[in-house]
Amino acid sequence: MDVFGLEVVQNPEEYLSDNPEVEDQLVKSAQSAFSRPGVPPADETKEHVLDVSTLVLAYDFEEDEYVGFSAADEVAGTVYEGGIAVAESQQKNGLGKAMLAKTIEHQLDGDTGIVTYRTQNPAMYDCSRKVFNAQPFEHGPVSPKIYEAISDVAEAMDLDEEFKHPVVKGAYSDPMYTELPDRDSRDFLENMGMNYENGDAVIIGGKVERQEIEDKVKQYISENPRIEEISQ
To answer: Is residue 94 a contact partner of residue 224, using CB atoms and an 8 Å limit?
Structure first.
């Protein structure tokens, strides 16, 4: 049975520069997480996803390699989750939500904050709903503060693409998947006007409390004997 370690990288840029083999493993994990070959491109992953303030890695002790990552930075005053991926062979092991919670914990500045990210994947949306109060959601309006934060993130990203709150039309040059994961939330995302085949994505946001997210990290690790925290 594989056991995984969650590792917070202290200086992502320097660490990956000094350990190119780790960077290659993370690119491999990212590409295996999507159903389209070569997506996301290696150069794009290295330059725009892994070059961040906070990077959390998932290490497979049995295979002796990194099998996932979560990367975040500050965008428009929010904790912006710029990329998260778990190798296809290691999905459904609880790594996604554990890494997401750990990333938010380390990137969050202060006792409260707002987390944002963009996605076209209902599985990612479902994961975030478990970790924090991600909006929009099916049964209730988006709070004014989160609505504004989503708009601010879209503006800060200087999007050339058309933005119809909360959907970025053509956010990706190509769809990230040959077919979206079959989740209940898929219809919800598409009903907001997201067409994944055109590369559209939804910007998601939600308020977080530091104590709550710290409790989530402890919960996900204590409940899963296959995950443990390790020091770099």
So the answer is: yes
